[in-house]
Amino acid sequence: MASSSLRSFHRPGLVALAVGILLCGCAVGPDFQPPANDAPADFSAWHGGADDLAARPAPGPAASPITWQSFADSQLERLQARALEANPDLQTAALRFAQSRAQGSAVRSQGMPQVNASGSALRLRESEDGDFARVIGAINPAQKDQIVKVLSEVHDMYQLGFDASWELDLWGRVRRSIEASDADEAASQALLAQVQLSVQAEVARRYFELRSAQDQIRIARADIQAGEETRSLVLARTIGGLTNGLDLSRQDAQLADVRARLPQLLAQEAQATNQITLLVGERPGALAAELAAAPGAAPAQSRPLPDLSLGVPSDVALRRPDIQRAQAQLHAATAGVGVAVADLYPRITIGASFGFQSTEASTFGEWGSREWSIGPSLQLPIFDGGRRRATVTLRKLQQQEAAVAYQQTVLKAWHEIDDALSSYTAERQRNAQLAAMETASRDAWELARVRYEHGMTDFLVALDAQRTLLQAQKAHADSNARLALGLVAVTKALGVQAAGDGASSSDDAKKSAQTS
After folding, report:
1. Alpha-carbon distance 229 to 405, whole Å?
2. Residue 432 belongs to what H/E stretch?
3. Is 117 in contact with 161 (CB distance < 8 Å)?
4. Are 194 and 322 in contact (CB under 8 A)?
5. Which of 389, 386, 401, 331 is nearest to 186 (CA)?
6. At 373, phi and psi to the nearest 5?
7. Cα(262)–Cα(179) distance, rounded to whole angstroms?
């Protein structure tokens, strides 16, 4: 009776039991919850340093968002676009992202049935002294020699079959593995975005360093021209006996000092040009004509840059690629705990095979030559010396480490943004004062020059006014560059990327993964 019940339960009951267990299966281990960030509404609430450098949110419209278009420089945007297409470091990051996608596809395949086909056509001979001969001798010793002789004759063997297996993911081991793989892929994508941001920021930094060097060159050449005109005036007064040769020597020394600055500035221009050329993946000199300063062009940093005194919302920090990457790594570490815990439980795999086997080509494929098998297999961990338990402990410690790394990344991001905003605000205030200083110094130089030309003052007064103007021009031009570089630092700290960059790079990486 029991045997009959067992047979009646054997097929449909086994399938129903497997489906029931599968549907009731749970994913062990902790479920990932995105970390909460207790951030204020605006960074001004967490400002460190003097209140004069803190943003002061005012009622009314919110400040315009910071983007790479805030520099209002179309040439910079074109260079950044070229770098995003051709920069070798970015290409390497895109390939690594493509690799992570391919790895993710391999992990996701674990949740699908595995089907394989095999076939063979062999010409073979069994050994007369093999194991089967010993078995025959034990069963029928009288006819052992005759039977062994027949079985050891050379013959053909044809085989063709299929086998399939599928693991019942009862404890979520496969699901947690896929979850961890997806998180690793997200971390790789965030790394790609981080490299994109670094490339954009580096192009902008080198670009403004180049424009600063060109502005300094323009100022130096204008100063040389003005110094030569002043020297002509001093020389004429010396020849006319209105002054002695000392004034001429002083002017020659001043002119030589300005001329001595020019070669160094030209070297800085060449170096910055080569750095940009390298970032866009071109040979030296390929962008020389494109990056050359146009004759009579206005200073590159003369465009008004945004005023960030209205503050920046603190939630922009969460868009930073390094924070997204840290969160994805925490997610992967959390899922890894579930994978390790699931390894403590049994694994059940449903397997099936079907095929044909025959020693004669004429009967191969006939229904009588078929062979098949189906049924579950159980893998039950019993003793491994504590390896699996130690792995669970290791994964939990790695999860805690990833959580600490995430909090550190977020805190570091807030500090970087506050530092960048403070530096930018301080440079804006300094720049305004230097602009006023340059204007006043220019007026003083013009007045001193006219007074000296008419013999109303000593040349030392005019020379001192000229030196003051040169210093003011140099300081103001340097501040213009620092202001632009400060905005680059703010834009990078906020994790701003050019519109469409992430999507296009992701698409390129997908194409690379599909091609591979």
Report:
1. 63
2. helix 387-453
3. yes
4. yes
5. 331
6. -155, 150
7. 60
**Token pair 């994109």: residue:** 196
CA distance 474 to 434: 10
Contact call for residues 174 and 345 (beta carbons, < 8 A): no
DSSP letters, 14-44, are: HHHHHHHHHHH----SPPP-PPP----SBGG
With contact defined as beta carbons under 8 Å apart, do 117 and 162 qualify? yes
Residue with tokens 């030296």: 284
Q: Which residues pair with 155 in a beta bridge?
A: 124
Sign, Cα dihedral of 425, 426, 428, 429:
positive
Contact 107, 181 (CB under 8 A): yes
Q: Residue-wise pLDDT tens for the chain (516 aa)?
A: 434 433 443 455 444 444 544 544 578 888 998 887 766 665 555 666 666 666 555 444 445 567 787 787 888 889 999 999 888 888 888 999 999 999 888 888 888 889 999 999 998 888 888 777 788 888 888 888 888 888 888 888 889 998 999 888 888 889 999 999 999 999 999 999 999 999 999 999 999 999 889 888 988 888 888 788 778 877 887 787 777 778 788 888 888 988 998 999 899 999 999 999 999 988 998 888 888 876 655 555 556 777 776 556 666 667 789 999 999 999 999 999 999 999 999 999 999 999 998 888 888 888 888 899 999 998 888 888 899 999 999 999 999 999 999 999 988 888 888 888 888 888 888 988 999 998 999 898 888 888 877 777 776 777 778 888 888 888 888 888 899 899 899 888 888 776 544 444 445 544 444 444
pTM above 0.90, yes or no: no
- Provide the token pair at 13: 């009951």
